[in-house]
């Protein structure tokens, strides 16, 4: 039987690294669903298309090549901000829905992280986590990440972008960011990645009866 672990949460809360570690621990496949949106947005940026055009965005999403998910350019702040803008389009979400649900059927199990996994993509997931951290902590983490890529920015700029992105993700009409009613909340503000991983595994083991 295939197991599904859904990890939702705010930007830069650590859910991506957590998702990879959880998947490795259980021997499951892992999908960062945010990469689907970033790859779609990046394709539009390269083609100089209007990110506010839902039809163009849906076409880009439908033609997405899975190989594009490994492009290092997807890690940039500009692409991340663009991804949040195209994610509000209903046709884009519809185009990527099938890809995500098919991935969730992989045996022996799959870990998907994003913003609507437990609420929309996999509402019947075996375990649902909602990961969050204080905005200033997330801004520091993202700044460190971007600096490591050589991107010229500041903590203040990153924090402003993060707050704007939180607002857009939580207020959009289609699949807004929110914790599923049966999600287990995990605040990583005061946890390093080892501590967060241990906390997540403890929750998952308890739910699965391991």
Query: What name goes with the CATH superfamily?
Result: P-loop containing nucleotide triphosphate hydrolases
What is the 3D form? globular
Helix/sheet category: alpha/beta
* Model regions low in confidence, pLDDT < 50 over at least 5 residues: none
Oligomer: single chain
- Which CATH top level class fits? Alpha Beta
Overall pLDDT level: 93
The whole-angstrom Rg is: 16 Å
Order of strands, main sheet, comes to 2-3-1-4-5
Please trace the helix and strand order, writing H or E for each element: EHEHHHHEHEHHEH
Describe this structure in words.
This protein has nine helices and five strands; from the N terminus they run βαβααααβαβααβα. The chain is an alpha/beta fold and 210 residues long. The protein has one domain: Rossmann fold (3-Layer(aba) Sandwich), CATH 3.40.50. Strands 2-3-1-4-5 form a five-stranded parallel β-sheet. Helix 1 packs across helix 9 and helix 3 (54-62) packs parallel to helix 5 (90-103). The longest helix has 17 residues, at 155-171. It is globular, with a radius of gyration of 16 Å.
């Amino acid at each position: 039987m295939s197991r599904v672990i859904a990890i939702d949460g705010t930007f830069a809360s650590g859910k991506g690294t957590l998702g990879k570690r959880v998947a490795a621990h259980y021997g499951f496949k892992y999908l960062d669903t945010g990469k689907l949106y970033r790859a779609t947005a990046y394709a539009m940026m390269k083609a100089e298309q209007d990110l506010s055009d839902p039809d163009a965005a849906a076409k880009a999403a439908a033609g997405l090549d899975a190989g594009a998910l490994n492009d290092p350019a997807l890690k940039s702040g500009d692409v991340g901000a663009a991804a949040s803008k195209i994610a509000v389009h209903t046709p884009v979400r519809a185009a990527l829905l099938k890809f995500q649900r098919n991935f969730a059927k992989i045996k022996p199990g799959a870990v998907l992280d994003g913003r609507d996994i437990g609420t929309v993509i996999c509402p019947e997931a075996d375990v649902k986590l909602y990961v969050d951290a204080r905005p200033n902590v997330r801004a520091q983490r993202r700044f460190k990440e971007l600096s490591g890529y050589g991107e010229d920015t500041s903590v203040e700029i990153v924090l402003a972008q993060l707050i704007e992105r939180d607002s857009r993700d939580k207020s959009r009409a289609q699949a807004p960011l929110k914790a599923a009613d049966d999600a287990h909340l995990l605040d990583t503000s005061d946890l390093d990645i080892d501590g967060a991983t241990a906390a997540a595994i403890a929750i998952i083991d308890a739910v699965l009866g391991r």
